[in-house]
Amino acid sequence: MLLGMGTILTATPAQAQTYDTRYPVCIQVYSREGSFIGCGYTSMAQCAASASGRAAQCFANPYFARTDKKASRRAYRRQQGLNQ
Fold first, then answer.
1. Which of 64, 23, 67 is CA-nearest to residue 46?
2. What's the pLDDT at 12?
3. Residue 77 has pLDDT above 80, yes or no
4. Strands, DSSP E only, in the chain?
5. Coil, strand or helix at 1
6. Whole-angstrom Cα distance, residue 39 to residue 61?
7. Is 49 helix (H, G, I), strand (E, B) or coil?
């Protein structure tokens, strides 16, 4: 019981990791205090330049909201049918 209370009282609050949906590339930086993720890169090369010489790695943002999606063939055909 006492050990459980001590664990709860000494636990540090976790920081929420946020993924910026506007950028396709993220970086995860590791430090003694923990790690953090920042998504603010437009290319892997840009991120790699920032990560160079640091304990960090770049990865594709899993929550990137693509704005250049091409319409599927089915959607295109449906649109063409509405225009006639």
1. 23
2. 47
3. no
4. 25-31, 34-41, 56-60
5. coil
6. 7
7. helix
